[in-house]
Write a structure and sequence with these properties.
7 helices, mainly alpha
Length: 115
């Protein structure tokens, strides 16, 4: 199925249908899924029609044990080499030491300057 040609409403309906089929394959009722997810049965019914808030949809995926599929659905973007190069200049390269008021060189030698 070519998803890129669907309208947002049609794609939402498709996701809802897939959610419903996943629930049915797990042999779970809408009421049981709602209880597991901590939502109302109406939220489950609406989600299966493609009309759910994102947080509720994710709660249902978690309750069905299929939330890991989100990695395939929307993979975490990787930084491009150009973005990585820009970030390199912002990484700390050395510590500044404590801010006791004396230069770091003086602190290094304070043990050797004993009477």
């Amino acid at each position: 199925m070519q998803l890129k040609h669907l309208t947002p409403a049609a794609l939402s309906a498709e996701l809802g249908e897939r959610l419903k089929q996943t629930r049915l394959n797990a042999n779970i009722t809408q009421a049981e899924l709602a209880r597991r997810a901590g939502v109302s049965r109406n939220i489950v019914m609406n989600a299966e029609k493609g009309q759910a808030q994102l947080e509720n949809f994710v709660a249902l995926l978690l309750a069905l044990g299929v939330a890991e599929q989100l990695n395939s659905f929307l993979a975490k973007p990787q930084l491009s080499p150009l973005q990585l190069r820009k970030l390199q200049g912002k990484q700390r390269e050395r510590a500044t030491g404590s801010r006791g008021g004396e230069p770091a060189e003086d602190r290094e030698h304070e043990d050797t300057d004993q009477w």
